[in-house]
Amino acid sequence: MRIGIVSPYSFAVPGGVQGHIRDLAATLRGAGHRVEVLAPAERGDDLPAYVTPAGRSIPVRYNGSVARLTFGPVAAARTRRWLRGGDFDVLHVHEPLSPSLSLLACLLARGPVVATFHTAIPRSRALAAGRGIAQLVLEKVTARIAVSSLARRVQVEHLGGGATEIPNGVMVNHFADAQPLDGWPGPGGAIGFIGRFEEPRKGFAVLRDAFAILAAAHPGLRLLVLGPGDPARATDGLDAAVRERVVFLGMADDATKARMLRSVDVYAAPNLGGESFGMILTEAMAARTPVVASDLDAFRRVLHEGRAGELVAPGDGAALAASIDALLSDPLRRKQYAARAAALVAANDWPEVAERVREVYVAAIEACGRPTGVPLPA
Question: Is the pTM of this model over 0.70?
Answer without folding.
Answer: yes
